[in-house]
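To: structure subgroup
Subject: Chain for Friday's discussion

All,

I'm putting the inputs and outputs inline so they're searchable in the archive.
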Amino acid sequence: MEEQRLNRIRELREARGWSQRRLSAEADLTISTISGIENGQRPSLETALRLAGIFGVPVEGLFVPDSSTVEVQEKAAAAATAPSSRPVVSTGDDPSGRKQAVGK
């Protein structure tokens, strides 16, 4: 059975050839904190920002999206490209006679 990864900390650390001890020194965190994050504990925002800076990636680059996150992103992308379903009505306020979209 494949291990479910929640973040890329171990991957990014190993890509640099760093031990947990080295990363903990670079990030001014305990080895226990690094180990916990690599094993699924959620880092604080401050810690995530610190690690992102060290690895030179945006904060979201530290995390592996789960299926629900991917689904939300796909729905948002589809909604952004779909034609508007807002009704077009004449407001009578536009002297050019153009119709304007009015939402609820």
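Points worth raising on Friday:
Strands lie at 88-89, 100-101.
The radius of gyration is 23 Å.

D.
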